[in-house]
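Exercise 7b. Backbone tokens:
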């Protein structure tokens, strides 16, 4: 009645009682064949032949050979077909099976000879003619291939395989219209013809993505393509393109699971796409996780950094978002995604001059973007008239140093920094970084200038650097100083931070160190970082009192996050 899984389960129970029951093995193998589990079927047939070496049942050898072919075990399949032919020398299934094995082994000329032998003897040689035509096509003898397919279709217009193969031939010749016509005809004859559905999916992926998505969904639900990373990726891409974001997120997760042993480049692209879709769904924590996985493969990937920036923006982690966008642009200064989202971030923060510059850079790459043009007009109206005081100061600094060469800005900024004039140094070095976002030296000096002037901005700049290089020891110390200044307004806690970090590096769940770090990061408004240490301390709590202390701190952090008391969060 078509319930293969129940049948297989009953035959398995029978075999648990008597493992040598040949009938049960035979029926279970047949069930596996119908379910598309060819490796399992082949195991059962091997067991039958082991128990009964002189088996005289031709169909068992044919079925076992067919299963071996599906597992690309062509040499074993050839031996099994030979055994079937010893029992029944004119068996058409065994003869055509051998020809198809030769195709699998890329022995196309041998396969053609076998097909011609079958055609001479078999009163209904359609399958042999189609197989011969397939060999001709692989040998690029297209006219002979077309003649074979046409002859079969003329005698049997409902031959789905001949229609499908003729469609592939037309596709190879560049005749997409004819190929689509034949794919549609083959699928009309056999709606479950998975190879035809996949071929039609690739043909219609641009012209008719809805049909392509339907075909790829059908394919991924089949045993043949259920683990195909390529087909799952195409399905997820189409779901995202057609606005089916939740379906796309689930499909990307499935594909990532299948691609875990696949090449890292493909895995990187999947994590990046998944993070983008998760951002669209406002599943920001999951988007950060996916972005981090991508960055663990390629720490300089601008799309992964931009996606993480978007997620941080969505969570209200303003400094983290800006750090990610800026890091992306330090590696790819013309990346339009990073420019666009950083411009929106600046606009939201009322930093209209920076937003204007990013939009202008964006439009140099995409001059026809209507939305960006409209946003630029809106931003310019704010920079021209009543922009905030900080914007006017920034604009004045930009004008003052705009004509100064980059190298001069860096050297003069260092001189001002060494002389203690950190505000002037910061202005010079900011302009230097604007001119050359990927220059590590200018950004390092800017970090040091910011330590006193704007500790939170210093932390953000250090984070950008940390994703690009390994910081020298003095820069790491300055990072601690900036963090403690942001948290307490003094350097008193700097050495404490170093000690606590060293302690948790050696002992991740150390209660006192985790509590110290959680409170310092919370004071600096870096709530997610604080929560991470809080959770680590909670998991390592050694007594009820310590557990209660961490639980109370975690509740306060959650309350702050909901009420928005601290909007500047350095870590997603």
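Sequence design result:
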């Amino acid at each position: 009645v078509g319930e293969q899984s129940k049948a297989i389960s009953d035959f398995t129970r029978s075999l648990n009682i008597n493992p040598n029951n040949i009938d049960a093995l035979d029926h279970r193998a047949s069930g596996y064949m119908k379910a598309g589990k060819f490796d399992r079927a082949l195991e059962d047939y091997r067991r039958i032949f082991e128990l009964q070496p002189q088996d005289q049942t031709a169909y068992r050898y044919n079925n076992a050979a067919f299963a071996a072919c599906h597992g690309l075990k062509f040499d074993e399949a050839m031996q099994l077909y030979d055994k079937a032919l010893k029992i029944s020398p004119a068996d058409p299934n065994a003869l055509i099976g051998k020809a198809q094995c030769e195709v699998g082994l890329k022995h196309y000329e041998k396969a053609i000879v076998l097909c011609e032998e079958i055609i001479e003897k078999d009163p209904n040689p359609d399958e042999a003619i189609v197989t011969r035509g397939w060999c001709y096509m692989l040998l690029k003898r297209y006219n002979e291939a077309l003649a074979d397919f046409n002859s079969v279709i003329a005698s049997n217009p409902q031959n789905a395989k001949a229609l499908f193969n003729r469609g592939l031939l037309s596709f190879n010749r560049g005749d997409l219209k004819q190929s689509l016509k034949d794919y549609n005809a083959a699928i009309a004859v056999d709606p479950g013809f998975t190879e035809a559905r996949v071929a039609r999916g690739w043909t219609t992926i641009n012209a008719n993505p809805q049909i392509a998505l339907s075909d790829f969904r059908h394919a991924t639900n089949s045993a043949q393509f259920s683990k195909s990373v390529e087909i799952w990726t195409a399905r997820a891409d189409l779901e995202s393109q057609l606005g089916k974001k939740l379906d796309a997120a689930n499909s990307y997760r499935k594909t990532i699971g299948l691609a875990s042993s696949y090449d890292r480049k493909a895995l990187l692209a999947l994590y990046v796409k998944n993070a983008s879709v998760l951002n669209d769904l406002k599943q920001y924590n999951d988007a950060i996780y996916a972005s981090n996985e991508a960055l663990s493969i390629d720490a300089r990937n601008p799309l992964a950094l931009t996606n993480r920036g978007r997620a941080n923006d969505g969570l209200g982690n303003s400094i983290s978002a800006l750090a990610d966008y800026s890091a992306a642009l330090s590696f790819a200064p013309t990346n339009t995604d990073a420019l666009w989202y950083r411009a929106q971030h600046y606009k939201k923060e009322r930093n209209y001059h920076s937003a204007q510059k990013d939009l202008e850079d964006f439009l140099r790459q995409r001059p026809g973007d209507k939305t960006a043009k409209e946003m630029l007009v809106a931003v310019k109206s704010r920079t021209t008239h009543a922009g905030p005081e900080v914007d006017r100061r920034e604009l004045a600094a930009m004008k003052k140093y705009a004509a100064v060469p980059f190298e001069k800005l860096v050297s003069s900024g260092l001189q001002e920094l060494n002389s203690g004039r950190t505000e002037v140094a910061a202005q010079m070095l900011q302009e230097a970084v604007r001119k050359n976002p990927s220059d590590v030296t200018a950004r390092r000096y800017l970090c040091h200038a910011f330590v006193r002037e704007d500790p939170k901005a210093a932390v953000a700049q250090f984070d950008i650097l940390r994703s690009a290089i390994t910081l020298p020891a003095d820069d790491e110390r300055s990072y601690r100083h900036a963090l403690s200044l942001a948290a307490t307004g003094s350097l008193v806690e700097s050495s404490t931070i170093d000690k606590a970090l060293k302690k948790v590096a050696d002992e991740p769940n150390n209660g006192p160190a985790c509590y110290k770090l959680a409170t310092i990061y919370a004071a600096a408004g870096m709530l997610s970082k604080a929560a991470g240490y809080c959770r680590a301390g909670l998991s390592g709590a050694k007594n009820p009192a310590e557990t209660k202390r961490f639980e109370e701190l975690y509740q306060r952090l959650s309350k702050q996050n909901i009420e928005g008391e601290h909007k500047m969060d350095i870590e997603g």
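Instructor comment: Residues 211 and 333 are 38 Å apart (CA to CA). The longest helix spans residues 544-563.
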